[in-house]
Amino acid sequence: MHPRLLPVLTKKPVPSKRVCAAKLASLVSKRADTEVRTKRAERPFSFLLSAPRFLLCPMSVLSTAAGTVHILDRQAAFTELAKRINALPGGRPTVALSGGSTPKAFYAWAVTTGALSSDTLARVEWHVSDERCVPLTSEESNFGNAARGMLDALGVADSLRKPWPVGQAPQEAADTYEKSWRTPARPKLYDLCILGLGDDSHIASLWPQCPLIANDQGRFFMATEWPGRGWRLTITATGLAQCGEVIVLVAGANKAPALKAVCSGPLDVACHPGQVLRKMASRVTWIADADSARLL
User: Fold this and answer.
1) 66, 52, 63: which is closest to 263 by C-alpha?
2) Which of 1, 11, 64, 241 is 20 to 30 A removed from 71 (C-alpha atoms)?
3) What per-residue confidence (pLDDT) applies to 37?
């Protein structure tokens, strides 16, 4: 080969602009990946800092200012509720049911599964913590729905059914129901009071700005006119404090802000009536699904 041609033949080809850009991108990617691995090595669990607290808890149980929150799916929630009812001590324990779609679903589940024992059905006295001033035959009646959805199907005796006297005028009905509890034979109110939580933070028929929140006159039960929803008969904050145990059922993403406000938000009971439960937090259990507990 001619000596003058040698430099030309051995000279390396000049890479194109596209090849240079690809190599540069590869180098940048490798450097970024190295930095990420280094940070993970320094703080291996830092990604958990932004995760919802209930995902970090292996038993899905949280302690809050308003009581203990159990995060459970529907099947587990209903199983836990039935377990609590079956475990009530005493000769004739009292259970207050609640209105709403979740209790209705529990009634159907209890009938289908037979989760409530025969002993429970023979001795538990059934009430509702609040009621609309409508006949028991109405689809709006909390006790009526409990009877049609569960008590009838399970053969609960009439003597164990204790509805509010809705045939009376609202305040008279509240007075009559109150007197039935003001006896030496009843040292406390319900052994187990089951409640729901509204997306406006209401419990029972204690709605936001309800006058009974600030002054229930030391009564266990009262009548109140809920603007736009009519007259209600309801347990009061004083009454709730006299219950042996309170369980609140919460389900749905729309309830998440309310659950957060009640359990961990600034204290404002007038706006968030569920916060009255903070005074009895040691006896309150919240059974919530993952959607409603996502902000805790």
Assistant:
1) 66
2) 241
3) 54
User: Which residues have CB under 8 Å from 6's CB, separation 6+?
Assistant: none
Quick check: pTM over 0.70? Answer: yes
Q: What are phi and psi of 206, to 5 degrees?
A: -100, 95
Report the 3 state secondary structure along 155-201.
CCCHHHECCCCCCCCHHHHHHHHHHHHCCCCCCCCCCEEEEECCCCC
| Coil, strand or helix at 24 | helix
The reported pLDDT for the residue numbered 68 is: 98
166-201 pLDDT, tens digit per residue, is: 999 999 999 999 999 998 888 789 999 999 999 999
Relative to beta strand 125-128, strand 94-97 is: parallel
CA angle 79–84–89, rounded 5-degree value: 150
- Angle CA 221–224–228, to nearest 5: 150
pLDDT 10s digits, 21-51: 555 555 545 555 555 455 444 444 443 444 4
Pure H helices in the chain: 6-10, 17-42, 53-56, 74-86, 101-113, 118-123, 142-146, 170-181, 211-214, 237-241, 256-264
Burial track 248-266 (b if 16+ CB lie within 10 A, e otherwise)? bbbbeeebbbbbbbbbebe
Pairing of strands 67-71, 61-64: antiparallel
Compute the distance between CA of residue 96 and CA of residue 190 in angstroms, rounded to an integer. Answer: 6
